[in-house]
Amino acid sequence: MANVNTDKFLENNKLYASGEQVHNSAHPGKQPINPAKHVAVVACMDARLDVEDLLGLQTGDAHIIRNAGGVVTDDAIRCLIISHHLLNTNEIILIHHTRCGMLAFTDDLLKAGLEGDPAAEELLGKATGRKFTSCNHSSSTPAQFHAFRGPLEALDSPCNEQQMERLSWDVRRSISRIMNHPWIPTEGPDASTVRGFIYDVDTGKLEEVSYPGPMGTFG
């Protein structure tokens, strides 16, 4: 399976991390609808990630799908299926990052805080460094927040070995969701490649996550 564009973007990232500008922000004029580099990126919505800059993407090169955590949710899968089958992408890049907010809570904790549990409100306030204000209502949606597995840490904690392990677990889970989805081929003549990375928000560098490997536990 071809990874020619992904490998090129990794080279671009080295230039970006060293301070070189590799993304041209000027409007390029009329372009075709299919991404020129046949790439789809799933990345976190964190404000410190400028996906075009850190990969050296130009306007029209790739589909960029963003959400809290860069999680491969049902909606991300929906986007990837459309991206591949209708718009001719065949390389998928997943990007998580250090100091991610998804490390600072659990789904149950956030739901309890939103519903008005005082203990949960206090814990969330300590984790975020701001007063957590409950909505005092329950809701069936969203069904999941997709918080990352493992012991909680304060919001925006400096990167360490445990944090990298937790991030790697979730990158592998996201890769697995794609690799095992029946409508996203990763073998045969219509195959897409799937690779996952952790972006260091302090250095600007990408580190690849091996797959397969540990994905963590619920404990």
TrEMBL record:
Its cofactor is Zn(2+). One of its GO terms (molecular function) is carbonate dehydratase activity. SUPFAM superfamilies: beta-carbonic anhydrase, cab. Keywords: Metal-binding, Zinc. It comes from the Bacteria. Binds 1 zinc ion per subunit. Zn(2+) binds at C44, D46, H97, C100. Coiled coil: none annotated. InterPro entries: Carbonic_anhydrase, Carbonic_anhydrase_sf. Belongs to the beta-class carbonic anhydrase family. This is Carbonic anhydrase.
